[in-house]
Design a protein that fits this description.
Blueprint lengths: L8 H14 L1 H24 L6 H13 L9 H14 L6 H36 L2 H49 L10 H7 L7 H41 L1 H21 L3 H24 L1 H7 L2 H49 L1 H4 L10 H54 L11 H7 L3 E4 L3 E9 L5 E10 L5 E4 L6 H8 L9 E4 L5 E4 L8 E2 H6 L4 H6 L4 H10 L5 H5 L5 E2 L1 H4 L2 H15 L3 E5 L7 H13 L3 E5 L11 E5 L5 E5 L2 H40 L1
Parallel strand pairs: 1-5, 4-10, 4-11, 6-9, 9-10
Antiparallel strand pairs: 2-3, 2-5, 7-8, 11-12
């Protein structure tokens, strides 16, 4: 039996090299396909939802209970929130946003193709320069200038389309938010979300900032993140494919292993930028809210002399924001050092090694290795490698951008979810006490449409659980003016909020007309931004007024009824615009509000100290005019002069009790006068006793003499 003698090691290596060289094209294709699949898989894993650990879940629950900011991360919750918002900003493939996204994608691909051509052209220019080929050098320069035309055009268009895309996202999202936030008259009890957010729920303290700033930042980040993800991934595939053709797929595999190892280290060092972004937005909103309170209550603060207290509150909010931003800056500093050291310098050294492969090693299929060819190959490969390195770096940076997008997504999602809960009647409010009060807040009564106003066993409860009246029952028919009296905090304003559909009904049955049949005139009327005409017709526009067949002459007649006809000429006409809350006195504001009432002619008018700043004779004229127009009045006032205009009275004692009865104005006025007379006489008793004591002393002194 003949046994074969094993080949020496050097011969086996040589034989293996020959087999490899014979099959190298197939191996190259396999490695290239594997690289493409690896890039796509790695990108998917890097951007996919990361599972939340048990410890993180427990911490989130504890933070939510303590009122601390909840962790924000690129996880399943983020992608779920983002998918909901994406359906809003890109409603279908035929929308303007989808078209802009397609244009953006096409421009990104075109720019990558130009970059590949420029990398090759760059190598040819240097090679012709090294070889001393002047004509070839000039031709290459001409090609360089010609390619600059589509390159600059593409870059400008990319910036333009990206900004258009961000604006389109913001417009679409703002419209959807405002539709939910302001709603319309047809929404009924589901509307008034802007009121419920600030009065019936504690989750959002600064909706104005979320609607303006947070939506704008979210839209910008969403438009940028697409270019920062899709373009770099495409660049990594195309640049490295071309690079593999020049230096071999083996060098590409080696480079990939080194880059991915260092990238894993960098990813492990990446802080939670999403949480930091959400916290920064929340702290900035809290600071803005504190400033807005100072402007809103400037008069009260000035009277109290509360400047130091308000300054301390603002400084506290600002200090919290600065402390947070300082911490984030510190983390960004050391992360930036690690990021640049790995991405720029370490990866750059890897690239130089790969570019040197064709110089020090002879690769099959590549010949004519003179100085010019080597220079051309090195410059081209160097250019491709720099572009690929930049693309990989942008993929790494994009995770930070994605984390920041997660922060803004959580803010926008919180706004959308809270408004959705408002429309469903779900509120989260801190209670003054639990137990029975909490049970009442979780229950709901019935609201039925009717021409009359009728309450049957309805509890009057504030949104924070304070029970003002456990069971209120009364009935008011059209034309029966109701006077409501009682101390502060007894439930007068709460009753009006239920009638206006602002507060939910927590029990019993409420029969009332729709909210559009009520109009409120508070002690300090609201004057909108707009013309003088707008103040009388609010919330109607001029077009709405004309559609009703009302002219400026009719409006002037309405103003004449409240003795304000001269204001049109005094202010410069109907179309003049002022800051009306500053231009008019308190009495004129109340008269404008009454003129607004006479213009709209609702079935019911809620008057909350609405005549406190007008003369008594004017007050009587306005009451009589409202009655003549068929408006039923629900009045809160402490002026006895108004009693005679009302037929029923609801008297609240502030202790949970009430009396509802017919109002005999003359009898009640007589009782009031007698009461005041007796109170005056009782005030004189101490003086009379003192005088009596003095007279007794004088009399005793006279007898002793």
């Amino acid at each position: 039996m003949v046994t074969s003698k094993p080949l020496p090691l050097d011969q086996r290596v040589k034989q293996l090299a020959q087999v490899y060289a014979a099959h190298r094209p197939l191996v190259q294709r396999g490695l290239t396909v594997g690289f493409v699949l690896y890039v796509l898989t790695a990108a998917y894993r890097g951007l996919a939802a990361r599972p939340t650990t048990r410890r993180e879940k427990e911490k989130d629950v504890a933070d939510r209970k303590d009122g601390k900011p909840v962790r924000v991360a690129v996880d399943a919750i983020f992608y779920q929130r983002l998918s909901i918002i994406l359906r809003i900003v890109i409603p279908n493939i035929h929308s303007k946003e989808a078209l802009l996204l397609f244009m953006h994608s096409s421009l990104l691909v075109f720019r990558t193709a130009i970059s590949l051509y420029v990398a090759t052209l760059d190598g040819k220019i240097v090679a012709s320069l090294v070889r001393g080929q002047s004509l070839q050098f000039l031709l290459n320069i001409i090609r360089w200038l010609l390619v600059a035309i589509p390159a600059t055009w593409t870059n400008s268009w990319l910036s333009y389309v990206q900004n258009k895309l961000a604006l389109a996202y913001r417009t679409r999202l703002t419209k959807e938010v405002l539709k939910m936030y302001l709603g319309d008259e047809a929404d009924g009890p589901e509307g008034k979300v802007y009121y419920k957010l600030s009065n019936l729920d504690d989750r959002i303290k600064n909706a104005d900032q979320m609607i303006t700033h947070d939506i704008q930042r979210f839209s910008t980040h969403l438009a940028v993140i697409y270019a920062n993800l899709a373009k770099p991934i495409l660049d990594v595939i195309l640049y490295n494919y071309q690079l593999s053709q020049n230096v071999g797929a083996e060098g590409l595999v080696l480079l990939t292993v080194l880059v991915q190892t260092s990238a894993a280290l960098l990813r492990a060092l990446t802080p939670s930028f999403g949480t930091y972004t959400a916290q920064s937005a929340a702290l900035a909103g809290s600071l803005r809210h504190t400033h807005s309170r100072l402007s809103e209550f400037a008069e009260e603060i000035a009277f109290f002399g509360g400047e130091e207290t308000e300054k301390r509150l603002i400084e506290r909010e600002y200090a919290a924001l600065v402390q947070h931003e300082q911490g984030v800056m510190n983390k960004r500093w050391w992360y930036g050092c690690a990021e640049e050291g790995i991405v720029k310098w370490l990866w750059g050294s890897f690239g130089l090694v790969v570019c040197a492969i064709p110089v020090f090693f002879k690769l099959p299929g590549i010949s004519n290795f003179d100085l010019g060819s080597r220079t051309e190959g090195f410059v081209t490969n160097r250019r491709l490698l720099l572009s690929s390195s930049d693309a990989i770096g942008r993929v790494m940076y994009s995770y930070k951008d994605l984390a920041e997008l997660a922060g803004y997504t959580s803010r926008v999602s919180l706004l959308l979810d809270t408004m959705s809960d408002m429309r469903k009647g779900k509120f989260e409010k801190s209670l003054v006490s639990g137990g029975e009060n909490g049970e009442i807040l979780r229950s709901r009564g019935q609201v039925l449409l009717s021409d009359d106003i009728q309450f049957e066993n309805v509890p009057i409860v504030t949104p924070n659980g304070d029970i003002l009246l456990r069971s209120l029952t009364f009935h008011v028919k059209p034309g029966e003016h109701l006077l409501i009296v009682g101390p502060n905090g007894s439930g007068k304003s709460s009753l009006f909020r239920i009638l206006g559909g602002l507060w939910p009904v927590y029990g019993g049955i409420v029969r009332k007309p729709p909210a559009s049949d009520f109009m409120l005139i508070p002690q300090r009327p609201y004057l909108s931004l707009g013309t003088l005409r707008d103040q009388v017709t609010y919330p109607h526009s001029q077009q709405d007024m004309e559609a009703r067949g009302v002219t400026d002459a009719d409006l002037l007649a309405v103003l004449e009824r409240v003795q304000m006809g001269s204001i049109v000429e005094r202010e410069g006409g109907w179309d003049v615009t002022h800051e009306w809350r500053d231009a008019l006195s308190g009495g004129d504001k109340q008269k404008i509000a009454w003129a607004r009432l006479f213009y709209h002619r609702p079935k019911y008018a809620i008057l909350d100290e609405a005549t406190s700043l007008v003369p008594p004779d004017m007050e009587g004229m306005m009451m009589e005019q409202a009655t003549a127009l068929g408006i039923t009045l629900l009045t809160v006032s402490h002026r006895p002069s108004l009693w005679k205009y009302h037929s029923t009275i609801l008297q609240l004692d502030g202790q949970g009790g009430y009396i509802f009865t017919q109002l005999d104005a003359e009898k009640r006025l007589a009782i009031q006068e007698e009461k005041q007379d007796l109170e005056t006489k009782l005030l004189e008793i101490p003086k009379m006793k003192l005088r009596l004591a003095e007279l007794r002393l004088i009399a005793d002194a006279n007898r002793s003499m």
